[in-house]
Design a protein that fits this description.
This protein is mainly alpha-helical. It is built from seven helices and three strands. The protein has a three-stranded mixed beta sheet with strand order 1-2-3.
Length: 158
Amino acid sequence: RNWTVTHIMKDIASGAKQRPQRDDILKLARKREIDVIIVWKLDRWGRSTSDVVGSLEELKELNVKFVSITEALDFSTAMGRAMSGLLSVFAEFERELIRERVRAGLEQARSRGIRLGRPPLDIGKSTEAKKLWKKCANKSLIAVKLGISRRSVARLVK
């Protein structure tokens, strides 16, 4: 297609949340320094359907073409754009399934009497924190002494 290769990047991070190489590619796309991104396999571009769909939507808005060699997906063609739409539908479906599972799990935990959220602070620590606050007014010192966070100390002495 007479494309000129300007950048080659290898992303070897397996399952990593932070993907600096991909972020660099997206920066180049945002600066309009590249017109096409070619990947070996779609799962090398994103780890989840929603991640892939979100980044592909951004690339579409930037007018940057996306090609995945292994799956023969070329999002610059009509068929590729149709596949992109299908991916969007499946990503939304995946998000809804996860949301339903989380809600069902929370509801099941509540029905079994499991208390959700932050555990309450010991009342003894509350009175102790207030006494120590009157003596030294140092949240860090009080937190270490009582074995709680500085934020908890701040809430207790308020």
